[in-house]
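Interim report to the steering committee. The following record documents the input for Enoyl-CoA hydratase (246 residues).
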Amino acid sequence: MATAPLVRRHLDRGVAVLTLDSPRNRNALSSGLLDELNDALDQAGGDPEVRAVLVTHTGTTFCSGADLTEGRVAEGPGQLVALLERIAVLPKPVVAEVKGHVRAGGLGLLAACDISVATAAATYTFSESRLGLAPAVASMPVLAGGDARAMARYFLTGERFDTAEAIRIGLVTAREDALDGILAGLRAGSPQGLAATKELTTAGLRERLTADGPALARLSGRLFASADAAAGMTAFLERRDPPWTL
């Protein structure tokens, strides 16, 4: 029996629309979803008919971060680094459309996209510190484009914030009503011009991914394998407070 795709694809007037379609686990970054999204980006990058990529989603969550139910969770950080690198070096602009919530590593995916739009109902949380983890890999694109002081607060506290705040601190580009104008502008751009311009705008992120990506993936893997993370993830899955909560 064929397995339903976790990433659906279609072409809309030069825009490759990639829809994350794993609502059962809130579009978590499972190994399957990561593989399919990388493959879809590769295909879009090599297709001369594609001018830009739009990453959107089904369900109430854009991406919930690592799939904590997967046995290979400690391998996820390396796969996430590879995905962020794929987005950064892709010669086509990548736009994220957020119509729901974004959590943990999903914020790294969001921040790696060149442009992002979100509805007013979306919410954002860096939940790693409450699970005995750290936003190690996600921090690279998040800090490359966002307000470092504001990010320090949300990294450390795990507070939830809304789209207005996400725009203010540089995590999201604009509200969703800007999407049509953004896509029209990308459709009007020359493929060469868009690719050359993207090289300029992603230079800092690409340098950091090369310099720090492997070390941060190893750090994240060690944290996932720790006793604290085991306690934190178990508490999360059982919907209770971890043992260190005061």
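The radius of gyration is 17 Å. The committee is asked to note this result when reviewing the revised timeline.
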